[in-house]
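Lecture 7 notes. Example A: sequence first, then its structure tokens.
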Amino acid sequence: MINRRDLLRYSAAAGAALAFDLRAALAAGDLIQRRIPSTGESVPIIGLGSSATFSRLAGSGEVDALREVLETLADAGGTVFDTAPGYGDAEEVAGELVQELGIAERMFWATKVNAVPRGGRTADPADSLAQIETSFRRIGRESIDLIQVHNLADVPTQLAVLKDLKEQGRVRYIGVTSTSSSRYADLAEVMRREPLDFIGVDYAVDNLESAEMILPLAADRGIAVLVYLPFGRTRLWQRTAGRDLPEWAAEFDAASWAQFFLKFAAAHPAVTAVTPATSKPHHMLDNIGGGMGRLPDAAMQKRMIEFIDALPSA
């Protein structure tokens, strides 16, 4: 099991002491918290997603690293774990691991529902409920913290199912997600019409479209925001490959490119938590550093955008 001493060792391996002493921050428990507007409950600003490499490793059966990733998240004070039935074996494997580790009740479990048949447009409410019941079985809890309609799939039908479950006390928060700018107008319409607790949306230093309409609307409507794709999938890694982190990144306590990207996303006042996916424990700890110390102010965010925009596109 990863203990605090292991966390300190991993932080050194991640190079986090370059400009900001992550080890000291971990010892002090200084992970930034943000409030969920609908209740005032606080959650850590950096979480964990389970798409991409997490999902692929879950499907391979080689889950030791995923166990360490989840344990690292929990031991460092993180709680938000974002998954979906559509992420291959990720939800099932993570459910088994958190129960094995004894941390299921400590996690803020965020999953999704999308029971629309491939090629179809509508979902059968019974199918949506069956998919949700499977999520309950996988994590072994009587209530799930957050379930969102995945990628705006038949929102009227599936959100109605979630509203019923929330009324029953089985789901604490409900929402919708979209990572396609072509659907932002549809997302905004749902945000204005429905009593949502959360949305999930893409946002990154080189992907600012959601900041034009969606994030301000979330702030106005009192809707919490989970940020997806803060690394632009692999796009930002390709653009910064072989490049040193600018020295001025130390001014907001970023000691790695991961922290640079995560702190940019976390700095938006409408953002509740950022959920980068990873399958490597030392990357998880590095990501946690993105939620500690100072965040860039508006002037610094502009500088970050200009710096990345000046790099060749991936």
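Example B, a different protein, same format:
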Amino acid sequence: MKKQLVFLFVLTTGFLIGAGAQTSGAAELTVDDAVKLALDNNLSLKRGALDAEGKKRASARSWNMLIPTIRASAQESHPTRFYTELPPGQNNWTTSLSVSSSLTLSVSALETIKKARSDYEAGLLTLEQAKTDVELQTRKLFYQILLYQANVNLAQRNLESAQARYDQSAARAKVGQASRLDELTARVDLEKQRPTVRNTQMLYENALDTFKTLIGLPRGTEITLRGDLGSDESIAGAGAFLERDTAGNGSLETAALQKTIENLEIQRKEAWYQAYLPNLTLQWNPSFQYGNNAWSEGGSSSFSISVSLNLDNFFPWSASKTKLESLDDSVRSSQMRLAETLRSREDRISQYRRTIEKTMESIAAAKLNVELAQSTYAMYEEAYRNGTADYQSLRNAADSSLQVENQLQQEQYNLISTILDLEKELNVPFGTLGGQK
């Protein structure tokens, strides 16, 4: 019977997804395998990487505004008159070529180059945030599926127990040892278990579909998740983790806000230079003509240097002034948002730490409850072997063991989920605790 007890508890561990998933071609995944698939196949990450690549290209080529613009034109002309003939020797075609080159220099161009670089760095931060979010979702969903599978096993065991109780009540009622009311009550208990089984199965299947989409696998792929919801090593790791001083690590969210402020300040400098500093323009326009079997320089060749400044920008109601004021407001707003985010982050870190401490205490209590349930089952097993307890009492004790085991698994999942949230907040690698890699 000891072997039977071990078998009953193995059913609730969530280590196996089902016999059907063990067929040929099924994918067996650890949490790290799932994370790798998600980072490689997730479509939203691919879009983010494409956007970051475009910003990288724009940054690498932003210096091209310092290259002169060059234009070339060619013309073939022939003199003509409407009422008289052309004098002899002037009835020739003339070929002319002209090239124009200009370069406008301004201090704002340097800020434009800086802005392109800042946009690229912000794009990298956005992509890194997206990767972190996808990894967090993948890890949490991985362990949630293990919990859902344990819930399915528990619901199925409860249904089997309800069926056994009904069968026993019906048999007893048939020989007059139980009332019709007892039989009807057992039947109601049995039917109430069926929707529970279906609901837990639906939650499990829905989570699997979401998980496959997240990691980029076809919906028809059969997968087995290889992992567990907790161990003594992970609990010890959580305790050690709480003692670490990691609050100094900046989060990706605050880094992105700091980059936003930097970008806005660059935009403000760029707008100020454009509005209040002059532009220097260099222009060269050589011209050549071909006639009488010879090339000659045209009379329209020129080289010019000009300085321009828009005086309208100095009026307080000008569009440039309004733009600068709007950028100032945006900088101040982002600075306040950063300060607010930093305060909120400190609150979340404290809340996560308190939740982890509370959950660890709940796990310790749940383990004692599991130990009690196991001892109770052992007593009923001994009594059943000696003929002093019936099989249904033994099944009830087994069901109780499964129930408290499931409660322990729920607390273990809560611990894993909260630790993952804290790891993201502290910007440390996921899965750094014992047993969660």
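Note on Example B: Residues 319-386 form the longest helix (68 residues). The radius of gyration is 38 Å.
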